[in-house]
Write a structure and sequence with these properties.
By secondary structure, the chain is an alpha+beta fold. 42% of the residues lie in helices and 33% in strands. The longest helix is centred in the first third of the chain and has 55 residues. It holds the Pfam family N_methyl.
């Protein structure tokens, strides 16, 4: 009778318990690896999106100034100069000490290694290289007078 009651007891053995713990550990490691990889991808994308937004704001600022004063645009010593109608000069330049691009003395963009403005036949091309080595290029058409 006692032997029947021992056979009818339901439970798990130590081997079964160890097998379950091992499987759960493997699944947990797999899930943690996926989460860490997803987090790294998210951070890289966030940095790229931030850089894209900052460069877009810089290009918009340059474009606005060029559109307002198309006659006063000049490039010298890797600086973009725009002379306003009242004689003030707006200067976009690369500050190698701060690794930034400045509009006059105001920093517009940080984490930059290169800023090259090029003026050629009514086109202003701006080349920017960020800290990750990615090169960004934008071309702005200078519209003078009634030209569209």
């Amino acid at each position: 009778m006692e032997e029947d009651s021992m056979r009818n007891q339901r439970g798990i053995t130590l081997v079964e318990l160890l097998a379950v713990i091992t499987l759960l550990s493997l699944v947990s490691l797999l899930i943690i690896g996926i989460i860490i990889q997803a987090q790294g991808t998210y951070k890289r994308n966030q940095v790229t999106n931030f850089t894209t937004t900052e460069i877009s704001l810089l290009v918009n600022s340059v474009t606005r100034d060029i559109r307002q004063f198309p006659e006063g645009v000049s490039v010298s010593n890797e600086m973009l100069n725009i002379q306003t109608s009242d004689g003030e000069i707006i200067t976009y330049k690369f500050d190698s000490v701060e690794s930034s691009i400045k509009r006059n003395d105001n920093t517009l963009l940080r984490s930059v290694t290169e800023f090259v403005p090029i003026l050629n036949d009514g086109l202003v091309t701006i080349e920017i290289k960020d800290n990750s080595g990615k090169k960004w290029t934008s071309t702005i058409v200078i519209r003078k007078g009634g030209d569209l």
